[in-house]
Every structure is written in structure tokens, then in C-alpha cells.
Write a structure and sequence with these properties.
Oligomer: single chain
Number of helices: 9
Strand content: 5-15%
Strand order of the largest sheet: 4-5-7-8
Number of strands: 8
Shape: elongated
Radius of gyration: 38 Å
CATH architecture: Up-down Bundle
């Protein structure tokens, strides 16, 4: 072995040893998970007092909508997970992020490639340094292996990998956030449709009562007991109720179409059977999870993007330092005759490569400033997500409290309206009052019953909003 070869081998060994010593070197700033103070208690409260944060937080509920105890809703949720196109697209983005992270991991390993070629070629008669004995046309057969290995002394590749892994985790959080959002949309629409079914049931009962009232008024009119004005009022009241029924049916069709789209079906082929029975309103616990940072996938994704932005600072900082890599070549070459792998036809090369940019016009300075600005943006976005999450919880709690009070007051209003309706009807049949009193009392009773049912639907939807704001409900324990 030649002295020159010995020096190359010793230098390569020294470079490799140096790379091992510096493997832990990283130019990225030390990353600390951001701390966001959570409230000691939620500001909005119910009649029983303030909602207290639970410690520790319970785990994410994968089937939080099951608290509504509705088998049809559960079936639709399962169908959504299988067939929703938006969810399929989010899954594809996650798969792409995983594939990109795998590409970055390949940078930690030597890149080895093989090549082979068999050419018949002609060289120019006027080629520089061509000898008189060289033929113009000859064969050239070459085969070889090449190896390149970046020593990554300053952690540039490792920080790229860390950033790619964090982006993959953020993409997984985006997938979870998309899933949660779609589940929330489906639940809200389903509760709305079920509320419209209840509205339709109320109107059907009213139409039956109004139809009987029209017949009663017609009989009284023919018996010259009631006036033509009473007859017109009864018929007008029946027509108005039918108009409301048409509007409810139209709204239900729109809700049914929206559900069909969410579960990946054509609206023309989708049918949701009517069910006027009330849905159970889940009982709100005395304490709610406070660790939204762990539960909500949008917040978790924002934190991972902060980490990735921090790692990218290390990537651009590593560009300031010399880049060390090892290169090795081994192969054989002949002019069409002989064994390619014989000692006489063999070629090889081994040695380190060092690259150090000396002047770039301020490009690396700008890249580092850009990376730091992107980290500041990611940090601000994370803080924004936390504030939004707490606000959404407070909004949902306040809405549920107010709707609970409204439901109680509206129930009292409905009870009084039903009593007034009975008194007006009995008085009219006895001839004590005009039919205007009956119409007024019946209209008030119907409006109160409809308003009460709408409030109950809004309470169910507000409950779904709270489950969504908490990242997936709460545990019964």
C-alpha cells in the first residue's frame, strides 16, 4: 500500500472519529415545550356553581357522540370515517408527510449506487494529447460502486429529520382535527334534523286539532251559531300551520342532503328515517378537563410546528460551518477486452470532501432571520390556538347555562299557554267568547311549544359544541 494511500486512510479514519464525537452537536436553539397558563376555573357557571377544571385530564373519547344514546347517529359516524372525501384527503396528506419524513431519515445513511456501461465510441482525431498509436474507434466497458456519506458534524441533517418528524406528527394532529371537526358537523346536523322531526310532530298534532276546529266552526256556522268571520279565522289558522309544515320539511331536506354529503353518499340515494322521539341530553359533569394542550389536536399540531420551526433554525445555522463528507469509488474499466474486475483494470478512490462557502451576499443571514421569524409565527399561532380553545369552552358553557334558564322559562310559558288554550276553547263552545280568543290562545300555545322544542335542540347542539371544544367530550367518571 502506498504512503499516499496510507495518509488518505488515516485522514478518513480521523474524520470519521471526529464525526462520532460531534454527533450530538446541534445548532438548533434548546427547545422547551411552551407553557400556557390555564384558568383555575371557567368563568361561565351554572346554577350549581362554577365548573372546575379536572386534574388530571381524562383521555380523548374516540366515540364521544355515544353519550346521546342514538344508534342511528353511531352508524352515520362509522360511515363518515369510511367514506368522507375530506377525511380521505386528510389521510392522504398524512401519508405524504410520513413518506417525506422517511426521505429525510435516509440522509443519516451512506448513499451507495452502482453503475455499468458498455460503449463503442470514436474519439476526435484532434483530441488534445491524443497519441499516434491510439485507435479512433474503440470499446469502453465500465462498472463501479460509489459511496457518499455526509458526516453531519453540525446537526443539519438531524435537525431536518427532527423537523420532518414533527411535521409528520402535526399532520397526524391535522388528521385528528379534521376527523373531530367532521364528527362534530355530523352530530350537529343530525341533532338539527331530529329537532325538525320533533317540530313536524308538533305541527301534525296542531294540524289535527286545527282541522277539528275548522269542522267544529263549520258546523256551528251552518247552525248559525258561529259567524263567517269565525269560519275564516279557523281556515286561516289551518293554512298557516300547513305553511309552517312545508317550511319544516324544506329545512329537513337540506339537513338530510348535508348529512348525505358528509357520509359520502349522493343526496338522491340517501334517506334518513323520521324519528320524533327526544334525544337524551348528556349530563354535564361538575368538572371539565383543563389540559386542552394535550387533548385538542389543533393545539397539539401547533406545538409540533413550533418544534419543527425551532429545528429549522438549526438547519440554516449548520450551513455556516464546513460540510464534511466521505467519498469512495471502486470499479473496473476496459477497452472491450479482459476481466473488468482484474487487478490491472481496477480503479478506486477514497477520501474526505470538505465544503465551506466563503461569500454568499448575505443569503445565509437572511435564511436564519427567516427561520427565526417563522418560529415566532408558529409560537404566536400556538398561543392563538390556546386562547381560542379556552374561549370556545367558555362560550359553550355560557350558552348551555343560558339555554337551561330559557328552557325553564319557556316551559312555564308553554304550561300557561296550554291552560289558556283549554279555557278559550271551552268558553267558545259555551258561546261565551268569539273564535278570535281561541285562535289567539291556540297560536300562543303552538308558538310556545315550538320555541321550547327549538331550545331543547339548541341545548343538544350546545352540548356537542362543548364536547368539540374539549377535544372529544369527557369521561363519565
Amino acid at each position: 500500500m502506498s504512503p499516499m494511500h496510507n495518509r488518505v486512510v488515516r485522514f478518513s479514519a480521523l474524520s470519521f472519529a471526529l464525526s462520532l464525537m460531534l454527533q450530538g452537536c446541534s445548532m438548533a436553539p434548546n427547545y422547551k415545550a411552551p407553557f400556557e397558563p390555564m384558568p383555575d376555573h371557567y368563568r361561565e357557571q351554572s346554577g350549581s356553581g362554577a365548573w372546575q377544571p379536572a386534574q388530571p385530564a381524562d383521555k380523548l373519547q374516540s366515540h364521544w357522540w355515544e353519550q346521546y344514546q342514538d344508534s342511528r347517529l353511531d352508524e352515520l359516524q362509522q360511515q363518515l370515517l369510511k367514506a368522507n372525501p375530506s377525511l380521505t384527503a386528510a389521510l392522504a396528506r398524512f401519508d405524504a408527510a410520513q413518506a417525506y419524513a422517511s426521505q429525510l431519515h435516509a440522509g443519516l445513511f451512506p448513499q451507495i449506487s452502482a453503475s455499468a456501461q458498455s460503449l463503442r465510441q470514436r474519439q476526435s482525431d484532434h483530441r488534445p494529447l491524443r497519441g499516434d498509436s491510439q485507435t479512433s474507434v474503440y470499446n469502453s466497458n465500465t462498472t463501479g460502486l460509489s459511496l457518499d456519506f455526509d458526516l453531519d458534524l453540525w446537526g443539519g441533517i438531524r435537525n431536518q429529520i427532527a423537523a420532518g418528524d414533527a411535521q409528520t406528527q402535526a399532520s397526524a394532529d391535522d388528521l385528528a382535527a379534521a376527523r373531530l371537526s367532521l364528527q362534530h358537523q355530523l352530530t350537529t346536523l343530525y341533532l338539527q334534523v331530529r329537532g325538525l322531526d320533533a317540530q313536524k310532530e308538533i305541527l301534525m298534532q296542531s294540524l289535527d286539532a286545527y282541522g277539528k276546529a275548522v269542522q267544529l266552526t263549520r258546523d256551528r256556522f251552518q247552525g248559525q251559531i258561529a259567524s263567517e268571520l269565525d269560519m275564516a279565522r279557523a281556515q286561516s289558522q289551518l293554512a298557516q300551520a300547513k305553511t309552517q309544515m312545508d317550511d319544516v320539511c324544506a329545512q329537513r331536506n337540506l339537513g338530510e342532503h348535508a348529512i348525505a354529503e358528509l357520509v359520502g353518499e349522493l343526496p338522491s340515494n340517501f334517506r334518513l328515517a323520521e324519528d320524533p322521539h327526544p334525544i337524551v341530553l348528556p349530563t354535564l359533569p361538575d368538572s371539565l378537563p383543563s389540559s386542552l394542550l394535550q387533548r385538542r389536536p389543533d393545539i397539539a399540531g401547533a406545538e409540533r410546528r413550533m418544534f419543527a420551526a425551532n429545528a429549522n433554525i438549526g438547519v440554516v445555522r449548520a450551513a455556516w460551518y464546513p460540510d464534511f463528507s466521505l467519498t469512495a469509488l471502486l470499479g473496473g474499466q476496459t477497452q472491450g477486452e479482459g476481466n473488468l474486475l482484474s487487478a490491472a483494470n481496477r480503479y478506486w478512490a477514497l477520501g474526505p470532501l470538505i465544503s465551506l462557502p466563503l461569500f454568499d451576499g448575505g443569503r445565509r443571514n437572511s435564511q436564519e432571520a427567516q427561520a427565526k421569524a417563522q418560529f415566532d409565527e408558529a409560537a404566536a399561532h400556538y398561543h392563538e390556538q390556546v386562547l381560542q380553545a379556552v374561549r370556545e369552552v367558555e362560550d359553550s358553557l355560557g350558552q348551555l347555562r343560558d339555554l337551561q334558564l330559557q328552557a325553564k322559562d319557556e316551559q312555564d310559558s308553554f304550561n300557561a299557554a296550554r291552560i289558556a288554550e283549554k279555557i278559550a276553547t271551552d268558553s267558545y263552545q259555551a258561546g261565551a267568547v268569539s273564535y278570535l280568543n281561541v285562535v289567539t290562545a291556540q297560536t300562543a300555545a303552538l308558538q310556545a311549544q315550538q320555541a321550547l322544542q327549538i331550545i331543547e335542540t339548541r341545548r343538544l347542539q350546545g352540548n356537542a359544541n362543548l364536547m368539540f371544544a374539549l377535544g372529544g367530550g369527557w369521561s363519565n367518571s
